[in-house]
Amino acid sequence: MKEKSKNAAKKRREKENGEFYELAKLLPLPAAITSQLDKASIIRLTSSYLRMRSILPDGLGDGWGQSTRFSPLDNMAKELGTHLLQYLHCCSLPQTLDGFVFVVASDGKIMYISETASVHLGLSQVELTGNSIFEYIHPSDHDEMTAVLSLRQAPQQHFLPEYEIERSFFLRMKCVLAKRNAGLTCGGYKVIHCSGYLKVRQYMVDMVLYESCYQTMGLVAVGHSLPPSGITEIKLHSNMFMFRASLDFKLIFLDMRVAELTGYEPQDLIDKTLYHHVHACDIFHLRYAHHLLLVKGQVTTKYYRLLSKHGGWVWVQSYATIVHNSRSSRPHCIVSVNYYSQPMYGKCLALSLWYSWGPWMAQLSWFHLFLLPGFWGHHYSFPPSLSTICVIKTHTHTHTRSLSLSLSL
């Protein structure tokens, strides 16, 4: 009787193992991986995949990338979203993106992440899928991640059963790569720039939509590593320049390309804060990026306008890193590699306090004055470190007018 019971239990286990093996073969993973999975991993990966398919039954849909505001990238994002899930399991797309794709449910569970995450974090696709993303991000970033996955304000009436909200944020994620391959890490965490869309859908009960009630379904995003710790060794191309600054963005060193770009010699800018040479409308973005840099150690800024000595500006994007003192391990300075676009814009506009006034000022028309920030009574707030008044005089053939812009809190 005992022997018979043993044989029955053995057959049940064999049958169970066979069913698990068949289930594993249905997962959209290479056979070399599925054949090595234990039962718990098979269940975890299967439930994650089924959950993702229930949230995104038709892939990301034709509406992917249709944010509440129009963007020139909308068409590209829509096209990408329509075909993304068809290629998620193809190695070429994530490699082309130079990052990793991930899908996170509203509760933080990772429903999908591409295998290329192992290149950036050293963590495998199988290990990450089905687990909470909060287990792999810095504790200080938990609140930020919760906010990303939430509707921070009541959605406007879209008259659509579902839509997407753009998300862009920086996370410190666990990195177990060897030091020579990990890039810049701090305490075992690496800064990852994530950008994507939060999918929002109307509540549905008994096949009836509740028009005023929306719920978040999940986040689809791409994660990118920021430039490595050897940022000072990056080869500078013709559209790049670098600077070194103190922790409050007071410039310490600039390479000679800044003279060609802005008309300022490097020595003209030393000991001056970067904020003084940025367009007033971009101060908020730069200040926010500065805050992220001080908190997380690395940041990629949005494009901002760097003012020229002789009027106008160029669009610049900065990849900034905090360099630590090798002896004390304390933050020492900021090193930034900057990419700029040509040509220069607004050459006939003097927006800098340090502008060298020239003969062309007599030709400045009222139209140019309308383009100046603050002309229509808008007020801007600036970092406390800025306490300066920019006075701009404009002349026409028959009128003279002075305009003062307060650049202080």
Summarize the structure.
The protein is an alpha+beta fold and 409 residues long. It has helices at residues 2-26, 31-34, 39-55, 74-87, 92-97, 117-121, 125-128, 142-148, 179-182, 257-262, 266-269, 283-296, 366-370; strands spanning 57-60, 100-105, 110-113, 162-174, 185-186, 189-205, 208-225, 240-245, 251-254, 298-300, 304-307, 313-324, 331-340, 388-395, 400-407.
Low-confidence stretches: 61-91, 353-409
CATH superfamily descriptor of the largest domain: PAS domain
Mean pLDDT metric = 75
What is the third-level CATH name, the topology of the largest domain? Beta-Lactamase
* Separate helix tally: 13
Tell me the number of structural domains. Answer: 2
- Total beta strand runs: 15
Shape: elongated
Derived from helix and strand composition plus strand pairing, the structural class reads alpha+beta
**What is the CATH class designation of the largest domain?**
Alpha Beta
Q: What level of helicity do the residues show?
A: 25-40%
CATH architecture of the largest domain: 2-Layer Sandwich
The major beta sheet can be summarized as: 6 strands, antiparallel
Task: Kindly describe this structure.
It is built from 13 helices and 15 strands. The strands form 3 sheets. Strands 2, 3, 4, 5, 6 and 7 form a 6-stranded antiparallel sheet that branches. Strands 8, 9, 10, 11, 12 and 13 form a 6-stranded antiparallel sheet that branches. The protein is elongated, with a radius of gyration of 27 Å. Helices cover 28% and strands 29% of the residues. Helix 1 packs across helix 3 (39-55). With 409 residues, the protein is an alpha+beta fold. The chain has 2 domains: 56-225, 2-Layer Sandwich (Beta-Lactamase), CATH 3.30.450; 231-355, PAS domain (Beta-Lactamase). It has helices at residues 2-26, 31-34, 39-55, 74-87, 92-97, 117-121, 125-128, 142-148, 179-182, 257-262, 266-269, 283-296, 366-370, and strands spanning 57-60, 100-105, 110-113, 162-174, 185-186, 189-205, 208-225, 240-245, 251-254, 298-300, 304-307, 313-324, 331-340, 388-395, 400-407.
